[in-house]
Description:
Elements lengths: L1 H25 L11 H24 L9 H18 L14 H5 L16 H24 L4 H19 L12 E2 L3 E2 L2 E2 L3 H26 L2 H11 L1 H6 L4 H27 L1 E2 L6 H14 L4 H21 L4 H15 L3 H14 L2 H7 L1
Amino acid sequence: MHLLWIGRGVIALIIALMGFVTISHVILPSSSGLALDAYTLTLIGKYLCFALLAVALDLVWGYCGILSLGHAAFFALGGYAMGMYLIRQIGDRGMYGNPELPDFMVFLNWDALPWYWWGSEAAIWPVIMVWLVPGLLAAVFGWFAFRSRVSGVYLSIMTQALTYALMLAFFMNELGFGGNNGLTDFKEIFEAPITAETTRVVLVLVTALALLIALYGTQRMMQTKYGRVLIAIRDSESRARFLGYRVEYYKLSIFVLSAMLAGVAGALYVPQVGIINPGEFSPLASIEVVVWVALGGRGSLYGAALGAILVNLAKTFLTGFYPEAWLFFLGAMFVMSTLYLPKGVLGLIDAMLDRWRSTGRYRELEQ
């Protein structure tokens, strides 16, 4: 019961944040001390995108027992799908003035767009591709992995190898995605100036709305028979298989759904930060997502979102004042949460509420 109320509190906090962002830019004058600058808006948008990514990972790890160390790959693929659309909107405003080819292709003496860039100038492109590309990769990878009954640490290593291989591939100029520099210098999104203050506000609000929909939808889904079967697979896969459930199909479906959510998070991330490069495929990025979920509370979608926001707040602070200490702090948080917070911050709050409820003070207030 406490977890339900805590989850509602997280949703209320997100809604309050949406209201504050809107009021600070629509009602309050820019000279007001409560008005948010562009840097703060970008940070809020990033945190919300990371929270959505954490929810995606918690679906497979917290509810199905699949520890993926490669979810950064799906996040980055969604980002590249959006980046391809954004860079095509530059047109002849690029450095070389070519209306069809991005600047990096002109620099490399390409004379035509690769076939996988066809149609990327259309507004429908990101709407389809941010779902399709990560979902298709997850479907192909999951089909072979789950049918072969690969699980545990072996599956985790395979997912990390997948994202590392993609990182190396996207670093190659020959692949046609900007190489080491990636895709950047975006001008507009859906015909709106991408650096305009109004556009930034809308992007933050859309990201917050996407997070709310994901939290509500996945939470309801986990309360259905499908969700209960996933939990049964997590707790005892062999028993679920013995009872007649096609375990590989359940694993595959939730893995694909998780990858698609991660792709949406990446697509919302790119226009707010203004760049996507192969560094987003880094295995370290996937490990960080695992830390977010573990610290917030594995198996509690609201906790995963909360953990992502808390860890990235700490990262913003430490990398600004003590950059050399960040990785040590990240590792320490993971170890501490594993040893002393097995249910994460959300579990700790729930335990504290239970303890308070058992005291006489709570009964006095109740009366």
